[in-house]
Structures are given as C-alpha cells and as structure tokens.
Amino acid sequence: MQDPQELIVEIIKEKGILKQDVYNNLLTNFQLLKETLKSVAEDLEDRFEQIDNRIRIEYIDKSEFEAHLRVAGDLLIFHMHTNVFQFDGGHNLWRSSYLKKNPARGYCGIINIYNFLSDSFKYNRPNDLGYMIARIFINHENHFKVEGKRQLGFLYNDFVNATINQSLLKSIVQSAILYTLDFDLFTPNYDQVKEVYVHEMHTMSSNLVLKTGKRLGFKFQADTDQG
After folding, report:
1. Number of folded domains in the chain?
2. Tens digits of per-residue pLDDT, 204-218?
3. Does residue 227 belong to any structural domain of this protein?
4. Pair 111, 80: CB distance under 8 Å
5. Which end of the chain has fewer surrounding CB within 10 Å, N or C?
6. Residues 6 or more apart from 11 whose CB is under 8 A from it?
7. Are strands 66-71 and 57-63 parallel, antiparallel or unpaired?
8. What are the pLDDT digits (tens) for 46-94?
9. Alpha-carbon span 12 to 197, nearest angstrom
10. DSSP classification of residue 32
11. Torsion of CA 118, 48, 180, 87, to 10 degrees
C-alpha cells in the first residue's frame, strides 16, 4: 500500500499547486479588470460633463476582491471569489479535446457581476434586491467563458479557444452596462406593497424597509432573454 503521507503530498502537488496557479492568475486578471473599469468610468464621466452633469458615473475600488461601477441609477458590483472551482462532471466542456487532454484546465476562478440600484446603497436600504447578471470563469491558461443574461451569455462562450485580455474585459464590462441599462425597474404588484407596518413607516425616512428591486415579485432565475 502507498504511504498515506506520500499520497497526501502527491494530491497537494497535483491540486494544491494548480489551484494556487488559478487563483494567482485570476487575481492578476481582476486587477486588470479594475483598471478597465476605471478607464471606462473616466471616459463616460468626461462625455457626460458635456451632456448633463447630473448623471453620475463613478468607479470605486472597494477592496482587493471587489470593485463598483456606478452608472446613473445603477450600480454594478464586480466580485472576485477567492476559491477555485471545477466544472461539474456533467458539463459539456468535458467532452472537448481541450479538457480531455488536460483535465486541470477545468479548474477556474470566478468573477461575479451583480446589478443593484445605486439608491439601495446610497440610502442604506438593506431589504432591496440585487441580481447576478453574469459570472466570468478563467482558468490558469487564461481561457475564459461568461455565463449570463442576453449578450453576456452568448458573446463570450468559447472556453476552448478564447483567452482573456484587457480588450475582451472592456467588451464584457460594456456588455454588462448595456444589459443593466436595458434592465428596467418594474412596478411591483399592488398586492405586494399595499400593507405596511407602523414600524416600517417610522423608519422609512432613514432606512427604507420596503423592498425595491428591478423584478420585485418575479423570479429572476426564470427570466427569459427578454427580461
């Protein structure tokens, strides 16, 4: 029988080092994404100074793993997950020659993109809803794919051949902005908001407890490409 200590060393060499490689590569790309977000924000801000200075465009570097992009009434949050994931066993990518030749290529880091109303954060409304609109998968060889809504789900879906770079990151950011701007705030069903507690009215001015979300009352998971 193989020495358990040797087996542990082999597994760590195989998976532990690989996951460190994936993580470090994702962190490098997330820094590149931050630079891209800042550049896109500065360009849009300059343009709107000449159009209407009431429109707020702002980039905020929140932390090592989080960045915000405010575009008018919307807030896009880009969050890098610190763990490494493997595509599930039933994923069709495992049938590709790219992963068959080297299964280590199926380990990826993930950057999630969320859409919130900017007022939800500005007025500290903790009950408001946000939505994940996309997530970016990047492996240690810089191959990537995006899962998401509308154009985010089909423009960047060639994991086998596509490699990430700053130009593609900019395109992903622009696609996220375009989707967000077209993802409008719907009026909630009247029956969902007709009853209000006294304590909610007392606190409404400082901390709105009535939920606000672009699709409040609808299941975003079942949202079609028209949503």
Report:
1. 1
2. 555 544 455 555 433
3. no
4. yes
5. N
6. none
7. antiparallel
8. 888 888 888 889 999 999 999 999 999 999 999 999 999 999 999 999 9
9. 55
10. H
11. -100
